[in-house]
């Protein structure tokens, strides 16, 4: 995490919140007395900013300075609600295309996916408020600035987003090397959402059971799987191919 990515200390974080700064998430020492950060927690809840209680060692790793038990990630963008994201797409003629990231944690993979998403006409990217990669300087750099051109939505739970998408007429596919359905044979011309899992565990079991189908990318070599950013790119360009040609 770079200096420009975060602020620390009670009053700097409080003043940032009161000034309306966009914060991605807040880390508070789990051993702190709750009343110390009561004002910050209250404002964060009102603005839907995740607050995570973490061990002191995590805060010490983020900054060697006097963090006073609190560190906050700054976000270079503003997030949109899921309802606004779907509503905005309904006003367009082309069918919607969303990417749902299930606990993807690497900021550079996130940035790579955002860059490809912008190039392939993705309507928006949906991420979970906790446990996922932050939108920070690495994300911005890896996305080549595309992060400013693709709407990003944060939800409490990926499962809720999937239910909402399905209720709005979207088919939701999950990308998995274990799937038997070749993604070349899938129909992406209708409104669809593609779920990509974390780098190490893939799509979580609780999410797998909600999907309309699983798709895989055919592999000829000895390597069993692709980097998640590369896999997302392959699928998104297949969607673009089907919708364009």
What is the topological layout?
Elements (H helix, E strand, L loop, with lengths): L5 E3 L1 H9 L4 E7 L8 H9 L4 E4 L1 H7 L7 E5 L7 H9 L6 E5 L5 H13 L4 E5 L8 H6 L9 E4 L2 H10 L3 E5 L16 E5 L8 H4 L4 E3 L12 H17 L1
Parallel strand pairs: 2-3, 5-6, 5-9, 6-7, 8-9, 8-10
Antiparallel strand pairs: 1-4, 2-4
In short, what is this structure?
With 245 residues, the chain is of the alpha/beta class.
Describe, in plain words, how this protein is organized in 3D:
By secondary structure, this protein is α/β, with parallel strands linked by helices. It has 2 domains: 3-74, Ribosomal protein L30/S12 (60s Ribosomal Protein L30, Chain: A); 82-244, Alpha/beta knot. The protein is 34% helix and 19% strand. The protein has helices at 10-18, 38-46, 56-62, 82-90, 107-119, 137-142, 158-167, 205-208, 228-244, and strands spanning 6-8, 23-29, 51-54, 70-74, 97-101, 124-128, 152-155, 171-175, 192-196, 213-215. It has a 6-stranded parallel β-sheet with strand order 7-6-5-9-8-10, sandwiched between helices. Helix 1 packs parallel to helix 2 and helix 5 packs parallel to helix 9 (228-244). The longest helix is centred in the C-terminal third of the chain and has 17 residues, at 228-244. The N and C termini lie far apart (42 Å).
């Amino acid at each position: 995490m770079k200096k420009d990515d975060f602020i620390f200390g009670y009053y700097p974080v409080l003043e940032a919140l009161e000034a309306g700064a966009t914060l991605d998430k807040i880390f508070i020492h789990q051993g702190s007395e709750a009343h110390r950060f009561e004002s910050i927690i209250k404002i964060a809840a009102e603005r839907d900013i995740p607050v995570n209680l973490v061990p002191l060692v995590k805060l010490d790793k983020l900054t060697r300075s006097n963090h006073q038990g609190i560190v906050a990630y700054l976000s270079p963008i503003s997030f949109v609600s899921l309802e606004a994201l779907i509503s905005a797409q309904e006003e367009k003629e082309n069918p919607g295309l969303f990417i749902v990231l299930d606990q993807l944690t690497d900021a550079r993979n996130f940035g790579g996916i955002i860059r490809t998403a912008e190039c392939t006409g993705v309507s928006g990217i949906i991420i979970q408020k906790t446990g996922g990669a932050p939108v920070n300087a690495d994300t911005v750099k890896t996305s080549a600035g595309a992060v400013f051109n693709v709407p990003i939505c944060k939800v409490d739970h990926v499962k809720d987003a999937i239910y909402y998408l399905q209720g709005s007429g979207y088919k939701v596919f999950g990308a998995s090397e274990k799937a038997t359905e070749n993604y070349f044979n899938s129909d992406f011309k209708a409104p669809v959402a593609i779920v990509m899992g974390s780098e190490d565990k893939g799509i979580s079991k609780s999410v797998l059971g909600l999907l309309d189908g699983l798709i895989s990318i055919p592999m000829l070599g000895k390597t069993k799987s692709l980097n998640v950013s590369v896999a997302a790119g392959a699928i998104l360009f297949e969607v673009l191919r089907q919708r364009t040609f």
